[in-house]
Write a structure and sequence with these properties.
Layout lengths: L11 H4 L13 H14 L7 E3 L3 H14 L4 E3 L16 H7 L16 H10 L12
Parallel strand pairs: 1-2
């Protein structure tokens, strides 16, 4: 069995570099386009299921991908959720670093030189970039 993990498409808070955590922020138009593009790319393979977090941004991403890959039922799993960041949710990264300086060390990962779509394309082209996940059932 192969398991692919796909992050949800862009939201306005992603674009504005705000901490989302478990706050339910919907996809924006860019996020919808991203999800559809990933779905078209993933349609190169056969899929058995699409499972998602119950957050609306993840559900919509999963539904858009499912429409492209021929999986109409999207299963929501409450165990797949974003972590909670409490009062930090909604804060811009700069505000977070300023407000909590000395209390926490916040590191922002550098963006990869390629887009998520580019990384997905390479993974689908090269089986050596995938790992097999064996189910115990």
């Amino acid at each position: 069995m192969l398991l692919y993990l796909v992050r949800h498409g862009e939201t306005d808070w992603n674009r504005d570099r705000r901490i989302q955590g478990s706050t339910d922020i919907p996809l924006n138009d860019t996020g919808r386009s991203q999800a559809t593009a990933i779905g078209k790319l993933l349609a190169q393979r056969q899929w058995d299921a699409v499972v998602t977090s119950p957050l609306s941004r993840a559900v919509e991403t999963a539904q858009l991908i499912g429409a492209q890959i021929g999986v109409s039922e999207v299963k929501r799993d409450a165990h797949i959720v974003e972590r909670r960041y409490g009062e930090a949710e909604g804060m811009a990264i700069a505000e977070l670093a300023e407000r909590f300086q000395g209390m926490l060390r916040f590191r922002v990962a550098r963006r990869a030189r390629t887009s998520p779509l580019g990384r997905c394309q390479r993974s689908l082209r090269s089986p050596s970039n995938t790992r097999e996940v064996r189910s115990s059932s």
